[in-house]
């Protein structure tokens, strides 16, 4: 073998040793499904449990609700000042006012932490409805992401400095606070298959133990009956041969008591199973 063949063989061995073997294949035919990726703008991820309440499209805009002229105006003129005939942002303002009134400290409170959170929550839910209808609107999507992160910072601050008010605002706005995880961890196929294999093996072990336990339970009554017969025989032989008696009557009575209790328990279990089947 010349130098060329030796070098070629050594290269082949070296390459075989460094072949990547990272894929974990299970022989148990366990199927792994990748978990669904939930976008950050989804209500399940943002923590918004409730949807926006329905609004009457014939309701007047906030600035014209107390107008006396519109009360007697023609329907065509009145429709120009209704929410259904105006841009979407006016409906968003309507929701903002409704949310703020739920949590504000006094009628002129628009700058407290509670009012800011209510305003952001109303806007977020309006944007989420918009994204459900127009999922390709990138401008609203970016604004929605920024607003959700901003609200999380406000909630984190409020949770730190006034926990009772933090719990109260979550209840009023129907929110769930989801803090970021302390340590991020990727969900991989290899690790998931290992966990599923461990679960499968644990189920097999438990099933076999349960099956073996049933076999032992079925043998309990014959075993006790046989043990009582043998103890009685040994005692009688010891009496006949006039040797020290090692098997007492209390010992035999104890075995008989255990046998009767076991039979009663089996009868109760059998009746209970029959009643459940009926």
From TrEMBL:
GO terms for biological process: mitochondrial translation. The keyword Protease does not apply. Pfam families: Ribosomal_S15. Keywords: Mitochondrion, Ribonucleoprotein, Ribosomal protein, Transit peptide. It is found in: Mitochondrion. One of its GO terms (molecular function) is RNA binding. InterPro entries: Ribosomal_uS15 (IPR000589), Ribosomal_uS15_bac-type (IPR005290), uS15_NS1_RNA-bd_sf (IPR009068), uS15_ribosomal (IPR052137). It comes from the Eukaryota. One of its GO terms (cellular component) is mitochondrial small ribosomal subunit. Transmembrane segments: none annotated. Coiled coil: none annotated. The keyword Protease does not apply. Belongs to the universal ribosomal protein uS15 family. HAMAP family: Ribosomal_uS15_B. This is Small ribosomal subunit protein uS15m.
């Amino acid at each position: 073998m010349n130098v060329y063949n030796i070098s070629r063989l050594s290269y082949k061995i070296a390459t075989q040793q460094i072949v990547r073997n990272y894929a974990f294949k299970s022989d148990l035919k366990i199927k792994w499904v990748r978990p669904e990726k939930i976008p950050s703008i989804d209500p399940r991820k943002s923590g918004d449990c409730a949807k926006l309440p329905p609004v009457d499209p014939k309701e007047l805009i906030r600035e014209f609700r107390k107008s006396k002229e519109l009360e007697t105006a023609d329907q065509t003129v009145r429709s120009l000042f209704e929410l259904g005939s105006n841009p979407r942002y006016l409906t968003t303002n309507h929701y903002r006012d409704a949310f703020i009134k739920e949590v504000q400290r006094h009628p002129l409170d628009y700058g407290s932490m509670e009012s800011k959170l209510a305003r952001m929550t109303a806007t977020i839910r309006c944007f989420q409805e918009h994204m459900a209808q127009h999922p390709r609107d990138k401008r609203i999507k970016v604004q929605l992401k920024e607003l959700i992160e901003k609200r999380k910072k406000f909630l984190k601050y409020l949770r730190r400095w006034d926990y009772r008010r933090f719990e109260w605002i979550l209840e009023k706005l129907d929110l769930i606070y989801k803090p970021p995880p302390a340590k991020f961890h990727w969900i991989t196929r290899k690790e998931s298959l290992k966990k599923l294999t461990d679960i499968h093996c644990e189920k097999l072990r438990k099933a076999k133990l349960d099956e073996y336990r049933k076999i032992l339970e079925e043998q309990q009554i014959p075993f006790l009956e046989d043990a009582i017969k043998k103890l009685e025989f040994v005692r009688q032989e010891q009496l006949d041969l006039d040797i020290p008696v090692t098997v007492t009557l209390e010992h035999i009575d104890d075995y008989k008591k255990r046998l009767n209790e076991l039979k009663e328990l089996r009868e109760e279990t059998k009746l209970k199973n029959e009643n459940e089947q009926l």
